[in-house]
Amino acid sequence: MSDRVEAVKKLFTSKSSRVETNKGESYYQELFIKCEARLNELRANTPANRLDFADLLEENGIDRREFMKWASATTAMLMLPPMFTPLVADAAVMMNRAPVIWLELQDCAGNSEALLRADGPKIDEIVLDIISLEYHETLQAASGHQAEKQLEEAMEHFKGKYLLFVEGSIPMGMNGQYGTIGASGETFHDHLVRCATNAAAVVAVGSCATFGGIPAASPNPTGAVGVMDVIKNKPLINIPACPANPANMVGVILHYLLTGQIPELDSLLRPKFAFGYRIHDNCERRAHFDAGEYVEVWGDAGAQNNFCLYKMGCKGPMTFNNCSIVRYNEAVNWPIGVGRGCIGCSEPDFWDKYAYERPMADAKIKAPSGGVEKSVDEFGLGMLTAAGVGITIHAAASAVAGKREKSGESHE
Amino acid sequence: MTIRKWIEQIEGEASVQFEFEKNHVSFATIAFPHTRGMEAILQSKPAMDALVITPRVCGICGHSHLFSAVRAIESVYANCGAPVEISQKAESIRELTLTLELIQNHLKWLYLVIYPELSHMLQEKIADSCRLKGAYAASLATKILAIFAGQWPHSSYMIPGGVTCDPTHVDIIRAEGLLDELIRWFEKELIGITLDEYVCYSSKKTFLTVTGDMKKIENMLKRTKMHEQGFSYDRYLAMGEHEFSKPSKLVNRRMAKVHSKFVTLEEAYSIDEKTYAKNALYHDDYFETGPLARTMIEGVPFIKQMYKNYRDSTYTRVMARSYEAALLLEHSKKLLQSIKLNEPSYIQPLKKIATLSGEGIGIVEAPRGSLIHSVILKNGIIDQYKLITPTQWNLSCGSPEIPGPAQKAMIGSDSIETATFTFRSFDVCSVCTTH
User: Fold this and answer.
1) Global pTM value
2) Contact B49 A355 (CB under 8 A)
3) Same domain, residue pair A8 and A122
4) What's the complex ipTM?
């Protein structure tokens, strides 16, 4: 038992599983100069649309002070030192110079809903509003042939400069006939390849676009795959989760606008600023986990006192995402806040391996060989399971040790 | 002359092929050329997985899917002789979150589809920020939803036996604050009078006092002659049981009870286009479902008045949906006040889910109409899962002899543009239609 406890301790304290948040003075100085130059260059460009950031802020009753507060929070989220705050603010103002083309493939449009200000902090919403969306099937006014023309024009005009956001998986079964688009009956696959050809970078938004998502759930009736299985020769960023958090979409665009580069990614091509930590690391119920206090049955005393949901199947310990910090719907709440546990929606295969009420103890996932001493980059599904195994031990240990004596302090 | 049109916006795309004769639409086929195979995915998975997978059928009405899935599993419990007890509190919270999802859908549709489309048809400019206005209101509704459901879209907080959340007084106060803000927005931007006045409304005269965007939209509907077209079968169906809607059908002004055993599916009619949609029928007939059907069945005075003058025209359909948003706002206010915090959120069912074998059906009223989930479980594992979504009723694609509700409404339109608008008045939700 003692070496198991050691293993858990090692898992949570190992240096390499941390994200590097300080890259040294000279690195940031150099980046700062680069960003400044880039912003000056952007300033010279004409805005791609009419929406003006300052006007929108005013319309929404947001003053400069509040805006700068947002800018410094966003700078922190992007893991940049405070001196970058004015640059982030400038980049936000120039959001209407970042051409974005948004494709909807095999999806439920849930991520577009997020984009439609369904959630995300207020200023993030405004930033999303003014992102120069050149083509979005759900949001645009034009439809039919007119829309197809608009797409063609946008791709030509912003050749090599636009960010291609993709929502939804790509059905490969039956020669792609499970999903076609437009009057020509072009398959989703061909449509994606065509639109990606001249993109500066491709951003896969949501779990369907990143890993195939629900459509790829066993038995994967349509042969659905993620964007990274189709697009190989382009810079690609994955923003998984179901739905993807708008704050992370904004983060990626801002980063691109600011530095002209894509943010640092992990092995699954997810930006580290958002996916460098586990839900569990920053969970508000973490203290109860550490104390061995679990919800054992829905609605029990533990549930009423917001105890840890691990035994109810919470996948927080195996899921890399920042929802425990950013939360959803303008930071109103998040799944664990309503006592239902994380379902691991930003991890590959979550629908099959992580589904609802199956604590990792019962899940049929093989533990990988090798230790737990690996960096986040190497954290594939295998490693996630390792965390799962470690925690299973911990949860089991709490059961063995018997319930902790319930003293008054654990109640409210 | 045949014209094929690709209709996007809000939850996926549909392809509509119009036959145009003597300056009128003589027939139209509706096709949905994409699918994900959700029913196949659900098969052979544990029953509780339905709570995670079915909300993801749709990004805009996922909550309705969750509610249907929970009702379906609970109905299996009942059919296995172990009916699930649900506290009044859990019932109210479920109903509240569903109601909020309906409201946000209605407002988004009104501001992102209806208002801009009407302006486009009349070649009148509306401010760019107009769409954002509707999205803002919708975000208020989803924030309240998130207090109870954790997130929107795609929550899984309802479970057989109740809900997982255990709200405190603080949560209720936050929710009330947001709801008040939403109601104030509704009064200021949309109607220009108080919500109380609007929902108590009984005569045509009262509408004259309405100002705001609703007045503009109503006026535009008249100017585009939407009150003279878009007539469908005048047959209405609502199958979900809620405080705001009773399961009934209304045919020739006669109300009758409904039962899910009369619901059938048929292959969609198609000539040369591929479609993954199936038509939903009741007693072998097409029915209109959704806000117009619900308000007609409930006998809402405002809508009855509209109906008297303009029958089931596109005008009445649009007005019914926007008016239902007001009724639901009022309803959610009551629901929020009725939540008794000292009741349990969850009551453990008598049987373990892994021991259940049997059939179950869960029906709710989703934003666009009746949503049906039916499931067969074998030892807690899904043996079969069937989804029938609202748009499968409304956007059924029938033959020229017996067209579906939306098809019938489009036939006779004097232009493709007005026919398309009528189509949108039913609201496209293609991701649900083909699932």
Assistant:
1) 0.89
2) yes
3) no
4) 0.90
